[in-house]
Amino acid sequence: MAFIPPGQRCTDLGDLVRLLRRWVAETSEATVSAGTSTHPAYVTALLGGVECVLAGDTTRSGVQAFLDRMDHRTTLWVVPSRTGRMCRVAVGDDAQPLDGFFLYTEQPFWAPRLLDAPDVVAVRVLQAVAVLHRRGHQHVRVSPGMSPSGVYWRLTLSAAPGSVGEDAGRRELSWSTGNGTDVVGLDVTASTTPDAVADALVAAVPAFGRPWRDWTYAGWYAELLALVERERRLPVSFADWFDDSQGWEVGWGTGVRFPAPPV
User: Fold this and answer.
1) CA 62 from chain center: how many Å?
2) DSSP 3-16
3) Cα distance between residue 12 and residue 70, in whole Å
4) pLDDT tens across 193-217, in order?
5) What is the tens place of the pLDDT at every residue in 118-137?
6) Phi and psi (nearest 5°) for 34?
7) What span, in angstroms and rounded, lies between the C-alpha atoms of 12 and 9?
8) What is the maximum span of the chain, computed from C-alpha positions, in angstroms?
9) Which member of 35, 79, 132, 247 has the greatest number of CB atoms within 10 A?
10) How far from chain centre, in Å, is Cα 199?
11) Those residues with Cβ within 8 angstroms of residue 181's Cβ, 6 or more apart along the chain or in another chain
């Protein structure tokens, strides 16, 4: 009997990666179906809000190549189909399919598309804050860190002290990677624009839409976000046993430091 049963369901990219890591570590099977099936939808997964399928004849070497790339926090791309049928999912910035790794979307796409990436929802929220700053709402502040368990990344957004009046109502909101793709009621995927997330944040906390200028903070934040996007890791300003004397860290435990925000 195959380690991975036919019809296995993965809820997201992380779930798929964990399943395949277990398969590699605990079996010596040559294909994900142990040679019992070539069905194109042997495993199903929701990636970036798109239904995807992994074929039963996906090979061990293909899976290992996929996992090696995921270790480097790579991205997934849809490679358009010339026939209008199932589209191959490519792994990596070069958007090239991996030999022996047969992952497809169930719906056709006619142009290349970013499908998923590590922490894509969290990055969209951080990018949305930059959008708010560009719109003139530079009082929106971020406080990112790790949950006590170290499993989830947390982010609190708040209005800077003194930037809004007493009549502003709600002044902050919190989000965690434990919330999945739900950001204040908006289902966020790789295809969701930062502008759409920014609109949702203002709808949830109207105080975030008040005009306020703070170019020092906005400039600092723009540099932080650029580092986050380059490193493909999330910023951390607090965690159990975290030393903040050297500023924030981009990627918990990486040692990549960034100055604390201006006071």
Assistant:
1) 23
2) SSPTTEEESSHHHH
3) 14
4) 899 999 999 999 999 999 999 999 9
5) 688 999 999 999 999 999 99
6) 60, 35
7) 9
8) 66
9) 132
10) 19
11) 12, 49, 121, 187, 188, 189
